[in-house]
Amino acid sequence: MQLHNVRVHRSDENLARKDQLAWKIAEVAADPIPVSDEVTEMVINRLIDNASVAAASLTRGPVTAARAQAMAHPRSNGGEGSTVFGLGFGRRVSPEWAAWANGVAVRELDFHDTFLAAEYSHPGDNIPPILAVAQHLATARGLSGRDLVRGIATGYEIQIDLVKSISLHEHKIDHVAHLGPSAAAGIGTLLGLDEETIFQAVGQALHTTTATRQSRKGEISSWKAHAPAFAGKMAVEAVDRAMRGQTSPTPIYEGEDGVIAWLLDGPDAAYEVFLPKTGSAKRAILDSYTKEHSAEYQAQALIDLGRKLHREHPELVDPANIAGIVIHTSHHTHYVIGSGANDPQKYDPTASRETLDHSVPYIFTVALQDGTWDHVDSYSPERAGRADTVALWNKVTTQEDKEWTRRYHSIDPAEKAFGARVEIELTDGSRIVDEIAVADAHPLGAKPFARAEYINKFRTLAEDVLDQSEIERFLDVAQNLATLKPGDLGRLTIIARPGLLTSLATPNGIF
After folding, report:
1. What CATH number is associated with residue 322?
2. How confident is the model at residue 438 (pLDDT cuts 50, 70, 90)?
3. Tell me: the pLDDT tens digits for 69-90?
4. Which distant-in-sequence residues (6+ apart) come within 8 Å of 208 by Cβ?
5. Is residue 489 part of a domain?
6. Most buried residue, 17, 321, 427, 465, by CB count within 10 Å?
């Protein structure tokens, strides 16, 4: 990796283009270094993972709406068009709208991969826009499965490298501001574009995808699923404009009126960003991790701990036995999804699903009482409103523990942790204390996810919406990704059971 010092420059300093972060990102994207077998296998895992959660969300409102919008935008003249999750191979739409619809489907349940460092991210959000462009231009540019792998590897690399170095949430900027540039870079790699074109696309993608974090605060709305899809759509459009010779605000990061100066740490800010050297493999995808449970990532380990305590201490199910529960955890878990957020909605049994999956007091309570977690049943209004659950839920609080915060930010994979210590005070005066560092599915967890777990997740989540033959077809195509020819890329989608989508009420809008 190569260190790049990034700071704000006055306009009269005239920062050279090749010294700008957006150019450095473009250099990484344009580097034709091959992708290793290990990275290729993980890309396949994440394609399967995305399809899993998309299948489970096909009938949900936000996904239905986004799909309807995409269907109103048929393929353009420039290519073959792109597929939309749930629809048949022949139903093609314009690539930016496929990126939109599929991006919403992937994010709706908050159930795919994650990477956490200075910022938060779901790097699997890069896949829908890169795949959409690959499908659209497969024949015109002779794109193969190997080209798609290279594009996805770049998307993951850039997003994760930015997430390691530049915090957005400290300034209440939504984390998808790192996704626009990474997806644009990934598309650039896919298409074999030059540095200048990718540079312009990265700048435009960043400029159009900075927004506040209100989408993840208080009463969380359906926009939470749309935000990364919007960033992916903007990335596709940014690359299109750059390929037509259109330019971006420059320097987009370092300018005196740029992103760093006014949206992040201010005019005196300086960052250290590590990116792969020319000729170095793009391996960042291997640092990311997926979810076993449909919930915010910091809740993954606490669901596993709740299940464990349910098995070992059945008396904890009854709130009458518990005086209070304190979850000692990291700054992020406490202040974003814990009681430190000071959001009353995190204790509201009538809150939206999007809000509940960002409430660790709720999530831990249900996991403790049920000893399991379901992406539908655990969030149902009936489940959230159960009297004994509400009683126990209101006894759960979080506190920041500086050691858990330190481990959260550690750059040592062996000690980096997203867990907590739970202290339970019983009404009889006794105490139960237990802790967990990482989720069971984490690479260092009790049951790390490998190909078999990704396939099982797909089969489980797809069984109610896809025919068995379709499940097997998709798994076969995805697992042979590296050998796919241009004509095969359109098969990287999932087709719903006959009648499933047509039975849904389709919302109307402008299109």
Report:
1. 3.30.1330.120
2. very high
3. 999 999 888 899 999 999 999 9
4. 180, 234, 237, 238
5. no
6. 465
Let me know: does 164 contact 118? Beta carbons within 8 Å: yes
For residues 272 and 171, membership in a common domain is answered with yes
pLDDT, tens only, 487-499: 999 999 999 999 9
Confidence class for position 233, pLDDT limits 50, 70, 90: very high
The CA-based angle 62-64-66, given to 5 degrees, is 70
Asked if residue 351 belongs to a domain, the reply is: yes
Residue 41 included in any domain: yes
Q: Are strands 270-275 and 120-121 parallel, antiparallel or unpaired?
A: unpaired
Residue 383's alpha-carbon distances to 266, 306, 365, in angstroms, are 45, 16, 11
CA gap 258, 70 in Å, rounded: 33
Q: What number of helices (H) and strands (E) belong to the chain?
A: 19, 8
Model pTM?
0.92
> Residue 465: what residue type?
V
Q: Among 256, 287, 318, which residue terminates a domain? A: 287
Residue range 23-64, pLDDT digits in tens = 999 999 999 999 999 999 999 999 999 999 999 999 999 999
- Which helix (H) or strand (E) is 325 found in, with range? strand 322-329
Same domain, residue pair 334 and 261: no
**All residues at 6 or more sequence positions from 177 whose CB lies less than 8 Å from its CB, including other chains:** 168, 206, 209, 210, 211, 231, 259, 263
Query: Which residues span the domain enclosing 6?
Result: 2-287
pLDDT at 77: 85
Beta-carbon contacts of 430 under 8 Å, excluding residues fewer than 6 positions away, are none
- One-letter amino acid at 114 equals T
| Six token digits for residue 270 | 């300086």
